[in-house]
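Can't paste images in this forum, so I'm doing it all in text. The chain is below; anyone willing to post the predicted structure tokens underneath?
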Amino acid sequence: MIKNYLLCIVCVLISAKIFAQQESTSNAYLPEDIKAVEDYLEQINSDYIKRIKGDYASKVKKIFKDRDEKVVKSIKDSAYIFSSEIDGPFYKILENVYAANPEIDKTNYRFFINNSFIPNAACYGDGMFEVNLGLFNTFTSDDEVAFVICHEIAHKLLDHSLHHVTNAISKINSKETKEKVRHIKRQKYGQTRAALSVIDELNIDILDHSKEKEAEADSLGFILYSKTIYHKSKAISALEKLKVEDDMLLNHHVKVDSVFDFDSYPFKSYWLKETISIFDTEEKINEFELSSDTLKTHPEIEFRVNKLKDDFGVVNLDVAGTKDQMNFIKDVSHQKAIQSTIDRKLLDFAIYQLVEKFQNNRITASYYYHTMAEVIKQIYEAKRKHELGKYVPPKNNFSDEKHLNVIRLFLHNLELKETKKMGLAFCETHKESLKTSDSGIAIHEFFKSINQ
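Text version of the structure:
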């Protein structure tokens, strides 16, 4: 029982670590031929696991097989974006990497764009890679994207995924771990604490092992990268931009009392009035927190940057880098990130992203007004159907995400009749922008009709 528990926990950690390292269609979240993609992924996964050997081969094969099935499920669950506006420019950068490194056998390589807002990328081991949408929102040059591509390809060439999983399974099934498990089973008290202690020991060993592998992937990745047309110094800036801490996420101050304050319908102070709860506490948690070092986007960045500088003499020069493809990707990636939250009905997060990106000049005023009007309409519909709670959790007094919490408090304090008045006030205030499109006119007419 305890052994199975350990195996389950470590498998989750492995997946988290590997994943953290992850309009030609009518549905941007599905490929044109989902069956062809399924068959392709199954084939490369099957080819990969056939060559897995060793004492725990069957256990390792099962993890990779399960991972493939989870990827297919994630595709069907709209975790990925299939957009020619992003795929086209991205694949041009990828082709530049391949052209400079003809020795790479790219036959079974496939890159997918994940809709996650965290700047990251991943190598799954069998030939599938993913790049998070957040990477494009964070990076400013083709060079930085190219280095991350080279880094992930290096993971594949070095077979790190297989080594990582095999190492973890070996640790779990080692004589030392088995003896510790037997000792825990014999304990009358403190079994849970003792089991967690064993898990911590395994975690430390696995994470230390990962740190070394990340540095190895940087080294080989830089060798691949140095053959390309891209500026060598941008490898350093790419790594530094991947260092994401908890306080760097969702830290924009969204002043809802200003955003939703209109001459025709002023903001009401009680929309931000809190209800005192017996569960109020000073202790905070962070719902979007990268819950452990395994999930943080590379906590070892400083070590890796210094190693790259020492081994290759790379200097982080203040150069702009190449932007041929990022100029195409940048604007649309911000819009896709927002649209993804709207499509998933994460209405509080949609408002946060809209305001943050608009105030930081990452989206146009026209896009902001049209999309915010649509979000307000969806909020009204959710309230009318008594479904807002399905999409927007209430303010969590245990949460450290204060800016998102303010938006949640505001949305839940709004009455249905107030939402429709606010929607009309927003549309009337920005009617000149909304009337430039049929959808904007339709939303304005909608709010006028329900306010009569």
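The two ends are 64 Å apart (CA to CA). The first strand starts at residue 80 and ends at 81.
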